[in-house]
Design goal:
348 residues; Jelly Rolls; six-stranded antiparallel sheet; 38% strand; elongated
Length: 348
């Protein structure tokens, strides 16, 4: 396992993270459409004392890469040593190591909490203008003797800061691993986008990835359909919203093994590399059930189904990470991504 959690923050409706199945378990506020770093889609906005707590990772990780874009708002030039934004890694319950941005453009590594003891300081500067986006890659090794924090900004191919293997990054914990992250904003306001976290095991991503962007590719055509649309002339048009819209329009079925497949919009540009793709659906049942569902991705005539999700009467997110192309288990290409089809599969 390499990929642990990630979120481009684009698909959620207004009002914050309130839907089951998200990789976050605490509510937070969404930036308005256009607030993302490329003025497309959404970003997550944290206000003073706001937090974002992740679901537990799928494994206990001794080394993780934390990656995201960040915009400081109204505190970039305060010149003080107060911490305004950052995150802490946990071994479920114990705060182990924190990485926090100060008003004087430095970053401090703490023994866990935002107000904890400072283990080391990365002098920076790590930002130089208000409301300016920067991208960060942060490699963290959890250890009580050779813990390490390395920071790269804006896609740099060498470290902007390296603490060296000398920190106690597990704090009071007896576990040389982390399995949860909490992002918080102790003071003022920050916006984050394109968040993803992975370890150094297995297939890519497992090392420095550079500046990575999450892009939405929305259904725009019916490839093959058996589900019933609530309105309109195509099934794809009922599931093509940039952000979820609950029961405004949808597709539905009660027939086991019914599958819809939709073509999607194409990538606007050819990226240098494709780290992976994620299928994402928001689903619920409207009777007493029980019912369950999967999503299906088809690439080059090879199908791959998600894990089965048991439905409830309230909406849940169902997503699956595809780090390689199911056809050949090789790296994704732009042509294969553009040609892939996706859709829901009724299990029961």
């Amino acid at each position: 396992m390499a990929w642990e959690i990630g979120d481009g923050f684009d698909f959620y409706g207004s009002g914050g993270n309130t839907l089951g199945g998200s990789c976050w378990v605490t509510p937070f506020t969404w930036g308005i459409t256009g607030a993302s770093r490329f003025a497309v889609g959404q970003a997550a906005q944290l206000n003073a004392a706001g937090t974002m707590t992740s679901v537990p990772f799928s494994s206990n990780d001794a080394t993780v890469y934390v990656n995201f874009a960040h915009q400081a708002n109204n505190w970039w030039n305060t010149g003080d040593s107060n911490v305004y934004f950052g995150f802490t890694l946990y071994d479920t319950t114990n705060a182990q190591v924190g990485v926090y941005w100060r008003g004087n453009a430095s970053i401090v590594i703490t023994n866990g909490p935002s107000n904890g003891a400072v283990l080391a300081t990365a002098p920076g500067p790590f930002f130089n203008a208000n409301a300016q986006w920067h991208h960060y890659q942060i490699r963290i090794v959890i250890s009580n003797t050779v813990g390490r924090v390395e920071i790269r900004q804006d896609g740099h191919t060498s470290d902007d800061y390296d603490s060296g293997p000398s920190l106690n990054t597990r704090n009071g914990s007896t576990n040389a691993y982390c399995n949860k992250i909490i992002i918080n904003e102790p003071n003022n306001t920050s916006i984050i986008d394109d968040f993803y976290l992975f370890n150094d095991q297995g297939a890519q991503p497992n090392t420095w990835q550079g500046d990575v962007r999450a892009v939405q590719l929305m259904p725009n055509s019916d490839s093959s359909v058996t589900w019933t649309r609530s309105t309109g002339v195509t099934n794809a048009a009922c599931v093509d919203e940039p952000t979820e819209n609950s029961d405004v329009d949808y597709v539905s079925t009660l027939t086991i093994n019914n599958v819809d497949q939709y073509g999607t919009t194409s990538l606007a540009t050819t990226p240098n590399a494709i780290i992976g793709i994620v299928t994402k659906a928001m689903v619920r049942m409207d009777d007493v059930g029980p019912h369950s569902i999967r999503t299906r991705l088809t690439s080059n005539a090879i199908t791959s189904d998600s894990a089965t999700l048991s439905l409830s009467s309230t909406y849940q997110w169902l997503w699956t990470n595809y780090m390689t192309d199911p056809s050949g288990a090789v790296a994704w290409t732009t042509a294969r991504v553009n040609a892939a089809t996706i859709g829901p599969f009724c299990v029961s």
